[in-house]
């Protein structure tokens, strides 16, 4: 392993730890919410508040990585996220014990799992993307770096829900709830010990800001937002879909949901670790292929009637995301200057977070109409993004790279 590659792997470990801690809870949140007396839409509101925190904080953290450095921002993020999840564990225990009224319980969940966790969570992916952009150069190297980032996310999507499902087999929903902050605590210590301090370089004379409407960037920000929105619709409702479509009890839902999510995460990892580095495709081609494959996967989720079919559908969705993610993540960084990387990463973080803020509300709201409605809507969205990628994205990105940015 080269000296340059090792720190990138450490940064990706931070991404893995943060997202694994988050995803560990996802299989048990739907049945846990029902035990609390929350509706599907109420749980969607909790996820949306967390997403709002990421939207608001990502540009701030992006600028802080430029001014403070990547290492301190990562450690602040992981410690804050751990505190949020630990607070949520205490609240969940009180809620299951019946010591909190439902409105008070809902407010406490919003504060811990929503606001505190969301504000802290925002910094890690932004910092990791900025770090990778700072450590790589050229399209091929940048795509490989972003593939590592995406693979870390995919591995978290596999390990987190799987671990949550296994822990839920104990019959106690609080076991995975307490396991999540413990995992983050371990990862925080590892990052503090393993991530070296980078060589100092002169900081930019002023905070660099980049407009989301910059014509170099907005096409990829739009594509990324749409693809993440479709993914969020599935991730935030899949527990309800598994329980209702397969007629499962609450204790059976967590393990089964974990297996379905594992199928999707597995294909994300496989595509980004094996296929993307070997194919050598351009970012634009990766986005186009990914959007088409995701459309097919979402259509399959809409009609899948059994557990294996649902797992295969989510696996197809994950494969599409595996192709698209390194494409729409690497392209903006290749079009930006070095001092703009933190700001660009902040915009990308806000874009994905906005999707994960709207996705839960949209998905759970549509789910209450009928279980197939959110996935049919997601298929329409993805088909539109595929058309945009083939008909407009190439034209827009052939415009001159040097354009004015926001003051």
Keywords:
about 400 residues, mainly alpha, 15 helices, disordered C terminus
Report the principal-axis shape: globular
**Which regions have little confidence, pLDDT < 50, spanning 5+ residues?**
395-407
Radius of gyration, in angstroms, nearest whole number:
20 Å
Major sheet details? none
Order of helix and strand elements from N to C terminus: HHHHHHHHHHHHHHH
Strand content: under 5%
How does this structure look, described?
The chain is mostly helical and 407 residues long. The protein has helices spanning 5-25, 29-36, 40-68, 70-96, 102-121, 123-135, 139-168, 174-194, 218-235, 238-245, 250-279, 283-303, 307-335, 341-367, 373-397. The chain has 15 helices and no strands. Helix 6 (123-135) packs across helix 14 (341-367) and helix 12 packs antiparallel against helix 13 (307-335).
Q: In summary, what is this structure?
A:
The chain is mainly α. It has helices spanning 5-25, 29-36, 40-68, 70-96, 102-121, 123-135, 139-168, 174-194, 218-235, 238-245, 250-279, 283-303, 307-335, 341-367, 373-397. Helix 3 (40-68) packs antiparallel against helix 14 (341-367), helix 4 (70-96) runs antiparallel to helix 5 (102-121) and helix 9 runs parallel beside helix 14.
């Amino acid at each position: 392993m080269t000296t340059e590659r090792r720190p990138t792997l450490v940064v990706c470990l931070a991404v893995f730890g943060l997202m694994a801690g988050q995803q560990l809870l996802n299989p048990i949140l739907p049945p846990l919410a029902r035990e609390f007396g929350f509706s599907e839409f109420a749980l969607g509101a909790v996820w949306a508040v967390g997403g709002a925190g990421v939207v608001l904080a990502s540009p701030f953290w992006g600028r802080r990585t430029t001014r403070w450095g990547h290492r301190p921002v990562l450690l602040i993020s992981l410690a804050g996220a751990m505190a949020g999840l630990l607070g949520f564990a205490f609240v969940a225990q009180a809620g299951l014990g019946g010591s909190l009224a439902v409105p008070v319980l809902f407010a406490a969940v919003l504060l811990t799992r929503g606001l505190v966790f969301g504000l802290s969570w925002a910094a890690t992916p932004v910092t990791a993307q900025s770090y990778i952009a700072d450590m790589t150069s050229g399209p091929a190297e940048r795509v490989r770096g972003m593939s590592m980032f995406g693979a870390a996310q995919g591995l978290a999507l596999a390990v987190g829900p799987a671990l949550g499902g296994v822990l839920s087999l104990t019959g106690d929903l609080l076991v995975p709830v307490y396991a999540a902050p413990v995992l983050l605590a371990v990862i925080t210590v590892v990052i503090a010990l393993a991530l070296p301090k980078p060589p100092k370089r002169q900081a930019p004379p002023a905070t660099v800001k980049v407009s989301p409407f910059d014509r170099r960037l907005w096409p990829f920000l739009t594509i990324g937002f749409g693809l993440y929105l479709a993914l969020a619709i599935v991730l935030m409702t899949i527990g309800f879909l598994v329980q209702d479509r397969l007629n499962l009890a609450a204790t059976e839902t967590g393990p089964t949901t974990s297996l379905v999510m594992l199928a999707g995460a597995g294909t994300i990892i496989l595509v980004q670790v094996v296929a993307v580095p070997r194919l050598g495709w351009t970012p634009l081609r990766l986005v186009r292929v990914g959007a088409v494959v995701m459309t097919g996967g979402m259509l399959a989720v809409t009609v899948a009637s059994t557990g294996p079919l649902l797992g295969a559908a989510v696996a197809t969705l994950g494969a599409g995301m595996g192709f698209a993610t390194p494409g729409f993540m690497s392209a903006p960084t290749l079009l930006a200057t070095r001092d703009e990387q933190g700001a660009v990463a902040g915009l990308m973080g806000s874009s994905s977070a906005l999707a994960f803020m709207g996705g839960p509300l949209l998905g759970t709201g549509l789910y209450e109409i009928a279980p197939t409605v959110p996935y049919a809507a997601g298929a329409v969205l993805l088909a539109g993004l595929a058309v945009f990628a083939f008909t407009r994205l190439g034209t827009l990105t052939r415009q001159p790279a040097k354009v004015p940015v926001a003051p």
